[in-house]
Amino acid sequence: MAAYGLYTHIQANRRRSIALLIGLFFLVYLLVYAGALVGEALGSDEAPDILFRRALIDMLDAAPFATIGTGLWILIAYKFHQQMIDAVTGGRTVTRREEPRLYNLLENLCISRGITVPKLRLIQDDSLNAFATGMNERQYSITVTSGLIRSLNDAEIESVLGHELTHIRNGDVRMLVIAVIIAGVIAFVAEIVFRLFFQGGLRWRRSGDDGRRGAGVAILMALVLVAIAWIVSILIRFALSRQREYLADAGSVELTKNPDAMISALRKIEGRGELQGATSAVMEMCIDNPRQDFSNIFDTHPPIDARVAALVKYAGGHDPGPLALPAPGATTTQEEEANASAPPQSGPWSSVETRSEKPFLPSRPPVELGPTDAGEPGPWGPHRK
Fold it and tell me: Which one of 40, 156, 158, 164 is the catalytic residue?
């Protein structure tokens, strides 16, 4: 069944994600088979077909232990992944007293949809980025950089928070954390195998030429399987990330009713999201990953231009093009000078016209993102016309 509209695309994406996670578990068993094949090749002089059959039996015997081991690794990450991420990025939990502006924007969004407010974390970094983490409601948190808070206005920050809330609401965060964990295990095992063979100088003895040929074929096949598992695990991780960014952008627009703010936020973040010291796994969770690979094949995020084009086409936004920002630490702008000379406001009920900044929720009609099915729940509940 073809997907149409925002909600059915979300449902279709969830089904594809589950299939991809099953594929990752299959790759774990493929690695087990490759290891069994190496073990048989090093301990026997049989022909390749016999070694392949014995390795399959060994793999079936070891499969329960591989499943338990992978499950334990996921459990460890379930409990401690946030601490690991904070150790890498330097993130820390902030309260309303410390960041009232950020906290109020997030709380207003959550109250408008009746969802639990996730924890807020802050990274002291000049880069412009944000990401969501957590495996359940008690763990969900949104992390932003100090550079993002300084460089974006309220409407843009609200759009970024809506993007991350959509990731949480759609189950993207939990899915991506599990995928990164399993793919990390595959990459770790693959690296050990290749180091063992190409740097460790592994040698074995055989009683005859046939035995040497059989073992060589088996080991070569094992190396090919390890390489395939590693490459496919990377592609699965990227497949999980790329499509979800489009849906999270659309979910943010549906939540804030402000596609222009989402577009300008992406334009400001563009090329400025590099988190120093962050691993590739952390960068995959960010709203933008500026790290690029060969011909965009291995990019975890679609290009900003493509995301902006989608918002212009389907949400009716306007693209201002690439935006220049003042250098970190530069605080003197025309707007700030105007704010400094403006008289203080009397309270929260001052009229919009007397404020120095535009309201962060401009009046605009609800944005319809393509045809929808009223029976299909979206990220913020059933669609209401």
Answer: 164
pLDDT tier at 16, thresholds 50, 70, 90? low
Contact between 275 and 86 under an 8 Å Cβ cutoff? The reply is: no
Strands 92-93 and 381-382: unpaired
What is 196-255 written as a DSSP string?
HHHTS------SSHHHHHHHHHHHHHHHHHHHHHHHHHHHHHHHHHHHHHHHHHHHHHHH
Kindly tell me if the per-residue pLDDT of 290 is higher than 60. yes
pLDDT reading at 363 higher than 80: no
Q: How far apart are CA 113 and CA 93, in angstroms?
A: 23
146 Cβ neighbours under 8 A, 6+ residues apart? 122, 123, 124, 125, 126
Sequence letter at residue 169:
R
Q: For residue 122, what are the contacts with CB-CB under 8 A and spacing of at least 6? A: 91, 92, 94, 98, 99, 102, 143, 144, 145, 146, 149
Q: Are strands 119-123 and 92-93 parallel, antiparallel or unpaired?
A: antiparallel
Edge-first strand order for the sheet with 92-93 is: 92-93, 119-123, 141-145, 130-133
CB contact at 8 A, 45 and 211: yes
Is pLDDT above 60 for 362?
A: no
Select the more confidently predicted residue: 146 or 238.
146
Determine whether 158 is an active site residue.
no
Provide the token pair at 179: 């995928």
Helix ranges restricted to H, the chain: 5-43, 48-89, 100-113, 146-151, 154-169, 172-198, 209-256, 259-269, 280-285, 304-315, 334-341
The whole-angstrom separation of Cα 378 and Cα 6 is: 7
How many residues are listed for the chain in this entry?
385
pTM of the model: 0.71
Q: What is the mean pLDDT of the chain?
A: 77
At residue 361, the pLDDT reads 47
Spatial CB neighbours of 213, under 8 Å, sequence gap ≥ 6: 48
What average pLDDT does range 233-250 have in this prediction?
78
